[in-house]
Amino acid sequence: MNPPADPLARIARWLRETDGLIVAAGAGMGVDSGLPDFRGPEGFWRAYPALGRAHVRFEEIANPAAFERDPALAWGFYGHRLALYRRTVPHRGFALLQEIAAGLRGGAFVFTSNVDGQFQKAGFADARIMEVHGSIHHLQCQRGCRGAVWCAEGFEPQVDEEACRLLGEPPRCPHCGGVARPNILMFGDWAWIPRRTEAQEAGLVAWLEHVRRPVVIELGAGENVPTVRRFAESIGGRLVRINPQAEPMLPAGAIHLRCGALEGIATVHAALVRHR
Ligand SMILES: [Zn+2]
């Protein structure tokens, strides 16, 4: 009789047998780097007290209508985030993931709903990342002029954090001179230009064609915006779900590590070393 396998030994075996690692990351991935968690209005308003005082919810400010109504306020929010993500140092879990993937024939591919650019910052190749909701490090015209998307480099937002307002001029569209916005898929957003994300998706599809036995490590992906979870489950590979929440609906065969992203990655990394 075989004893029920220790889940960590099983994960280690999966990683020894795989030829490609898929990292599927949601908002929980950034928490260990010190990034704020916007879950629920309380968490969001704690991070942006000026929006709390004005009772502006996340869904209202992360909205193209906010850029129409009050670009200085919308850019107060996004400018603060852009500066924050630029100075954030990705936690150690990013490097551990790279170590886990280093010996694999196909390496790793990242699928993330995060717009913070932390995987690139941690050294993951641009060509191996799909940012399904876009990136704050890229801009586009509010009106979507010519389908253009350009890098936010050179735009250094100065923000009055007390009032959540951009000081100085917002970035402008080079074609029409109108206010530019982040190339992020927002709420009620019909003007988002998906060009970058579509090119990244083509890269992912091509990569997947050459990977026979993918392992998916899903990190901090919630149920409210289930894009990352759905993707992770759609692969049909071996799935490790790392999430501090309870998991009553865990897909058959998947393994749940109930903890934060960094702790979960470190646990998987240690198991791989121990069972090598
Ligand atoms: Zn324009």
From TrEMBL:
Residues in coiled coil: none
InterPro entries assigned to the protein according to its UniProt record, in alphabetical order: DHS-like_NAD/FAD-binding_dom (IPR029035), NAD-dep_sirtuin_deacylases (IPR050134), Sirtuin (IPR003000), Sirtuin_cat_small_dom_sf (IPR026591), Ssirtuin_cat_dom (IPR026590)
Residues binding Zn(2+): C141, C151, C173, C176
Keyword terms of this UniProt record: Metal-binding, NAD, Transferase, Zinc
Residues making up the signal peptide according to the UniProt record: none
Pfam families given in the database record: SIR2 (PF02146)
Enzyme Commission code: 2.3.1.286
Gene Ontology MF terms: histone deacetylase activity, NAD-dependent; metal ion binding; NAD+ binding
Domain Deacetylase sirtuin-type residue range list: 1-276
Active site per database record: H133 (proton acceptor)
PANTHER family referenced in this protein's UniProt entry, alphabetically: NAD-DEPENDENT PROTEIN DEACYLASE, NAD-DEPENDENT PROTEIN DEACYLASE SIRTUIN-5, MITOCHONDRIAL-RELATED
Protein name: protein acetyllysine N-acetyltransferase
